[in-house]
Design brief:
Blueprint lengths: L6 H34 L5 H29 L1 H7 L1 H13 L3 H29 L5 H22 L5 H5 L5 H11 L4 H6 L3 H12 L6 H12 L5 H5 L2 H19 L2 H6 L1 H7 L6 H26 L1 H25 L8 H17 L2 H6 L5 H33 L1 H21 L9 H8 L4
Helix pairs in contact: 1-2, 1-5, 1-6, 1-8, 2-3, 2-5, 2-20, 3-5, 3-8, 4-5, 4-8, 5-6, 5-20, 6-16, 13-20, 13-21, 13-22, 15-16, 16-17, 16-18, 17-18, 17-21, 20-21
């Protein structure tokens, strides 16, 4: 049989999307919770919210350092299993926390689990899926994150902190049970010397009638490419090239300013004066994210990664310029739909490419021996830049104005287009071994 069965690839990917759903909710919480925090906790001030939000980014960065080392030993599935209980604890701390310190701790724990999820889940999905649907399955991770963001935006309508947080402490417990029953990836098993178990896992994911021998040989080549030493593998040309690509991709993602919009959708909708109730604007943006994440999931393995990157960045640059012009010329015009249109363009374009593709390609570009380490380094850059963007946004706006910030974000997107066009390789419909050969310059 030449075509693999894909039922278990889909089922196991859906199992990991529970982690993505909870992660998206953790990201979107900032927008929904800000006004509730200030109403329910009189001791909190608006400037305290910057520290509470920043705790999420710091926790994620710390997780990358830790899991960059441990994921090579635990494997991607066990890593997701291990963070399930702390994830539940983080939500519970936010539900019962009444002080800035407890709220910061809860956000830090959520950030720690978020950081681990953003490395382990795409890695697991990339290693269990066949090359023809790998992009689509990896994009389901981002789709589930956007669904989590939308759900927590909607719950923000009730303006109740317990309702906004406590239900999400249940989902990680379900995730823990699901992860116990998922098989490890064949790559993880082969890397640990469990050849027969890797073969059995591949039969599960491809079907018993599928000839797995050629794929087993590819896994063997892929997992033994860097067996000499970790450092020798790290300094190979293909590894350096992939590392540069991934770090720059993640820098572009954060410096594009999109997480300012996602994490502060309520505040931005209030600033633009379009909605009487700003959370309605946030919900609209959440719906747009979900729709365009679904579109991206359907087209990524048809169009390819590079075209989606370029289309996404070009549209985001246009969106930033439109909203910058609004703040520059007619910020007090409440009848203008210009800022809403710009925000919709921004989140739609982000969900087409800039949002999901760094996670898709982190699962594709790296050899297995250094995948955990380098993906964690790239994600550490991601979260630390996110932290800097988050805490610097309001001071720069106060000093330079909103239009200056959004023109700057547009500039980042334009630089990103040039980088993708000149440096990033296409990975559509290529095996992991073929990608490594292309990075080495072998045709």
């Amino acid at each position: 049989m030449s075509t693999p069965r894909r039922k278990y690839q889909y089922l196991c990917t859906l199992g990991t999307t529970l982690a993505a759903f909870v992660s998206g909710s953790a990201v979107g919480l900032s927008s929904s919770a800000e006004i509730i925090f200030l109403q329910e906790y009189p001791d909190l001030h608006e400037h305290d919210m910057h520290y509470i939000d920043a705790a999420l980014k710091i926790g994620a960065a710390v997780a990358e350092v830790y899991f960059g080392i441990s994921i090579s030993y635990l494997g991607s599935r066990l890593t997701m299993t291990a963070i399930s209980i702390p994830y539940a604890l983080g939500w519970y701390l936010l539900a019962i926390g009444k002080t800035k310190e407890k709220l910061c701790l809860g956000r830090f724990v959520l950030g720690f689990c978020l950081g681990a999820t953003c490395v382990a889940a795409p890695m697991y999905i990339g290693e269990i899926s066949d090359k023809d649907i790998r992009g689509m399955l990896c994009e389901l991770f981002s789709l589930s994150m956007t669904f989590g963001i939308l759900v927590i935006y909607c719950l923000g309508e009730f303006e109740n902190m317990t309702l906004l947080t406590l239900p999400f402490s249940f989902f990680p417990l379900v995730m823990f049970v699901v992860m116990l029953f998922l098989p490890d990836s064949p790559v993880d098993l082969y890397k640990c010397g469990k050849i027969d178990e890797a073969r059995n896992a591949l039969i599960i994911f491809r079907g018993k009638d599928y000839d797995i021998e050629s794929e087993m040989e590819e896994i063997k080549q892929y997992t033994t490419t860097g067996k000499d030493t970790f450092w020798k593998n790290l300094y190979r040309y293909s590894s350096i090239k992939a590392t540069v690509m991934l770090i720059v991709m993640h820098c572009i993602q954060q410096l594009s300013g999109i997480y300012i919009i996602i994490m502060h959708a309520f505040r931005l909708c209030k600033m633009t004066n379009v909605f009487e109730k700003p959370n309605h604007g946030a919900i609209i943006l959440g719906v747009v994210q979900l729709i365009f994440s679904s579109i991206s999931t359907g087209v990524v393995d048809r169009i390819g990664r590079r075209p989606l990157w370029i289309i996404s960045l070009a549209a985001m640059a246009c969106g930033h310029i439109i909203i910058a012009q609004h703040f520059q010329t007619n910020v007090d015009d409440t009848r203008s739909l210009q800022p809403l249109i710009a925000l919709i363009i921004l989140v739609a374009a982000f969900c087409l490419g800039v949002g999901p593709l760094p996670f898709v390609m982190i699962a594709e570009l790296l050899p297995v021996e250094i995948k955990g380490c380098i993906s964690s380094i790239a994600m550490t850059f991601n979260w630390m830049l996110g932290f800097i963007v988050l805490i610097s946004f309001q001071p720069i706006v106060d000093k330079k104005g909103e239009s200056y910030m959004f023109y700057s974000y547009a500039g980042v997107c334009i630089v990103g287009i040039l980088f993708v066009a000149l440096v990033v390789i296409e990975t559509k419909h290529k095996t992991l071994e073929q990608i490594q050969k292309e990075l080495e310059g072998i045709r």
